[in-house]
Amino acid sequence: MAERDIPFSHLVKAGYNRGISRSHVNEIKNDFHEDMVQPAIVSLREGKYYIIDHQHQSQAIYERNGSDPSTLIRCKVLTGLTYEQEADLYYRLNTSSKPLKFADKMIGLIEAKDPKALEFRDTVESCGFIIGGDYSNSLRALKAAWSIFNRDGGKDTLAEILSLVNACWPNNRNSAKAEIISGIDMFIRFHGNEYRRNTFAKNLSRQDPRAIVSKGVTYYKQMDSKAYTKQYCIYTQLCHCYNANLKRHRLTTVPVTQL
Fold it and tell me: Whose C-alpha in 4, 125, 128, 189 is 20 to 30 A from the C-alpha of 27?
């Protein structure tokens, strides 16, 4: 692994790189010590230098030098890596150092073409959501969704949950959050063979998902028993909304004592 000085303007970002965090760059700049600088890890592929590690440190050095594109960055240069191998290395290096957000880890696995992660991405996208970014259809509850996906039969359960969310609250950035995902997960577990999808979509679409979560959390805080989990309390709100104005085929909430 050869070391060389490379102009900042020659360093290229790839799809596996997370976005630059201004707060992290400023933190490095405000507490900068020359003897603490580590060489950036880059991959020389097809004549370009793709930065794999220490991109925030490199950005800080560049800005401390007046944002001069010719600023030299000390780099350890790897050769012979494929894009997928770079993404895998990025994931491993960042997992073992500064903690990544779960979304960053998942994007790294997807870019590295991890089979399970690719299947997860395809399931999420088939239900109208995307992984990563800050868009109205970005899946916010990635960790909760990934946990469901990895259970026995989890792929089908997750697809059902996300399709319900999209049917009720399309393009609502407050819908695909962990509380709603986990609440619907419990709803399906208890009533998967008796609830009617059209009724769920019709009645729940009239409700703001934030209000459902808020009422569920309030209910949770009022309970002394540890049996009343936040997930269970949000599940009861979903049942209440589902049963609204129904005279037949109403669902009976499973008592907490039966959990």
Answer: 4
